[in-house]
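Quick one: co-fold with magnesium ion.
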Amino acid sequence: MTFNKRIARGAALVAIAACALVMPVNLASAETISVDVGTKLSDGLPITGNGQNLPSMGLTTGYWFAGPSPAPLVISYYSSGEALKHQSEISVAALKWTRSWVKKECGSTKPAKVRACKAAAVFDVDETLVSNYELFVEADPQFTIPSAVDISAANANCTRPVIAPVRALFKAFTRLGITSFIITGRPEADRVSTTTCLAGLGIAGYGDLIMMPTGNTQNAANRKADQRHALIKKGWKIGPSIGDQISDMANGSMQHGFLLPNLMYYVA
Ligand SMILES: [Mg+2]
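Sure, here it is.
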């Protein structure tokens, strides 16, 4: 590795770690972990995470919210900076893993070669690139089901803040020559607002924004796996899938899942 490359690599890791404010990055808590993915979701693991996610509770479709009992713990987790620390750790682990995957898959870490070999990554949107915590704690502090009015207002006004370490990861991938795709459960009706808000947060230049098609009745795990598979059929090689739900990285068509924390809700 040349000196310049070492500097660039160090700068990317520092940029991601710096997003966790002044807290030290402890890679020990971003580990490859065993996750109960149910009986239908068996292919596409391993997953690197930290265990700060709600269990499936046997849910096979739809979503559920944490509810009022754990609300004080949820608020403490996010307001103390612990969530940001874990988001940073997972992002650092994702960059480290993806660098070696690209080297193996494309035979080089030169951006032009990585682009030519169609190396790709997948990002989710909510609780991955942007946070809904601030919206929920303001409008729905019991973590039940936020109102459609509040969600619409957040969509229209771009009030959701970015999750900075994940944005730094997205940008590091771009510099490496990796094409990132965004696969979200948001409906097609939200395409313009989602694109506009992401652009306002400095998230642009992705391969495509893939949303929930109108009338789709699949659960998120099956739909997102099919959407990744469609990209692979077009010649893309998908390495990492980064999201806050097992359903962002279940059922294969990717090499390694990176599971960000979400103590607020579960999506099957
Ligand atoms: Mg999400």
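If it helps, Confidence is low (pLDDT under 50) at residues 20-28.
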